[in-house]
Amino acid sequence: FFSKPRDFSLPNSSWGPEMMRLYEHYNSQCEAETEGGGKQKGPWRRIPSYNRSLKRKTSFFCVCFSGGVYLSKLIQSKARLFTRSIKEAGAAFEYVLFDNSDAQKCVGILQAGHLLEGPPGFVHGGAIATMIDTVTGAHAAVLSGPVMTANLNINYRSPIPLGSTVLLESSLDKTEGRKTFVSCQVTSSDGATLHTEATALFVSISVRKILD
Ligand SMILES: CCCCCCCCCCCC(=O)SCCNC(=O)CCNC(=O)[C@H](O)C(C)(C)COP(=O)(O)OP(=O)(O)OC[C@H]1O[C@@H](n2cnc3c(N)ncnc32)[C@H](O)[C@@H]1OP(=O)(O)O
């Protein structure tokens, strides 16, 4: 439990040239050079990704529920984050998320592996929805703290070839009380083809309520 968990958002040998190109494009903007040649924070931030959201929230859970029933119940569970549950690298969801808090944007770079097939040679619509939920959900969580998806509205415009790399771009539309509204576009890695458009509503929740 206390060993360092694997961060799945870092490159692995299954990542192809387009995945690496986009990763390097955003990763290079996570740090900027100062006039004196030093380093400072850039506009983008890579969001680490583990195979359980609990791992990311370990310190939070320790503070809120130290020694409590919730923590032991969750740790003993075999639950895994859906998108990180397939062990073979490159077989399913290979992705990394970057957040730009000034621009209120979040991007996801996805390389869709062979286990995500829907129509022959193309990515399953449910897998696309999963990735839209992941990118917009992470974005809403960065903006508003703990949230649940209340509504996801998707228009599929053109199929995504299996094995290809696509870019998911999430933008904040508005917040209203507990509600965070975001939009998302999925395009080919060069931006030339629009694959999917979506809007999503996230509602802020109390973590204690979920665990109860
Ligand atoms: C960095 C991290 C990485 C993490 C990376 C991983 C990210 C993964 C993200 C995955 C996220 C998920 O899949 S979450 C799993 C899928 N989602 C779910 O299972 C959610 C199931 N639904 C629920 O639990 C509930 O309905 C909630 C929590 C959404 C809302 O319930 P509630 O808390 O009682 O709130 P409620 O009073 O009903 O609604 C609050 C306000 O929202 C509005 N509202 C509620 N639902 C809707 C709706 N479907 N469409 C329109 N509006 C709605 C209400 O009218 C109200 O507006 P007003 O009167 O205030 O104006």
UniProtKB/TrEMBL annotation:
Q: According to the UniProt entry, what is the EC number of this protein?
A: 3.1.2.2
In this protein, which residues make up the domain named Thioesterase?
Answer: 121-193
| Family in the record | Belongs to the THEM4/THEM5 thioesterase family.
UniProt-annotated location(s): Cell projection, Ruffle membrane; Cytoplasm; Mitochondrion inner membrane; Mitochondrion intermembrane space
- Reply yes or no: does the keyword Mitochondrion apply: yes
Topology in the membrane?
Peripheral membrane protein
Q: Which InterPro entries match?
A: HotDog_dom_sf, THEM4/THEM5_acyl-CoA_thioest, Thioestr_dom
Give GO cellular component annotations, separated by semicolons. Answer: mitochondrial inner membrane; mitochondrial intermembrane space; ruffle membrane
Is this entry keyworded NADP?
Answer: no
Q: Could you tell me the Gene Ontology terms of the biological process aspect for this record?
A: apoptotic process; fatty acid metabolic process
Reaction it catalyzes: (9Z)-octadecenoyl-CoA + H2O = (9Z)-octadecenoate + CoA + H(+); hexadecanoyl-CoA + H2O = hexadecanoate + CoA + H(+); (5Z,8Z,11Z,14Z)-eicosatetraenoyl-CoA + H2O = (5Z,8Z,11Z,14Z)-eicosatetraenoate + CoA + H(+); tetradecanoyl-CoA + H2O = tetradecanoate + CoA + H(+)
Q: Which GO terms describe its molecular function?
A: hydrolase activity
Query: Keywords assigned by UniProt?
Result: Apoptosis, Cell membrane, Cell projection, Cytoplasm, Fatty acid metabolism, Hydrolase, Lipid metabolism, Membrane, Mitochondrion, Mitochondrion inner membrane, Transit peptide
In its UniProt entry, what is this protein called? Acyl-coenzyme A thioesterase THEM4
Q: Which organism is it from?
A: Tetraodon nigroviridis (Spotted green pufferfish)
Which top EC class applies here? hydrolase
